[in-house]
Amino acid sequence: MTDSLPVIERLTQPVCDNDLRGLAHLLVDTVESGGVVSFLSPMTIEQAEDWWRKTLATAHNGAIFLVARDARGIVGTVQLHPAWAPNQPHRAEVVKLIVHHRARCTGLGTRLMHAIESAATEAGLTLLTLDAKRGEAAERLYRRLGWTFVGTIPRFAFDPDGKTPHDAVLFYKELG
Description:
Elements: E1 7-10, H1 17-32, H2 45-58, E2 64-70, E3 73-82, E4 91-99, H3 108-122, E5 127-133, H4 137-144, E6 148-158, E7 165-174
Parallel strand pairs: 4-5
Antiparallel strand pairs: 1-2, 2-3, 3-4, 5-7, 6-7
C-alpha cells in the first residue's frame, strides 16, 4: 500500500472496529466538507458509526461494500445494493460513493466506480442505477464514465445545512 495509490478491496463481514471507525471518520469528513450523502451537519463520529453499523447489519445478502485504503486508513468507499423485488434480480443501485477530502481529484472516484461495476458484473447484474446532486463533481464523473442521464428531480433533498434544497440527477448503466 502506498500513499499515492490506495488499494481497493471488498469489505467483509463482520467489520472490525478499526474499519467501522475509519468508515465513520470518512462519512463525517464528507458531510462536514459539504458532501451530499443524505446527512445533515454537524455529524458526530458516534452518529456515523451507528449508521454504518445498522447499514452493514441490515444489508441485502448480495450487497457489496468496497473500501479504498491508503497508508493512513480508509480513504474511500462505494456500495452496491441489489433490488429487493423478485422481478428485478438483474438490477442494483450504486450508493454512497465517498472519497476523503485528502484523496479528491486523484482519480479514486473513477477507480471505485470501475471496481463496483466489475463487482456487479461478477455478481451477474446487468443494470445499475444511481442518483447525484445536480451540478456537482459526481454528476460529471458519472457522465464521463458513460452512465446514461435519465432526468432531474427538482428540490429532491437538502444540502448538509438542512436548509438549501438541491436537485437530483438520475442515471443508469447497462453492463456487458
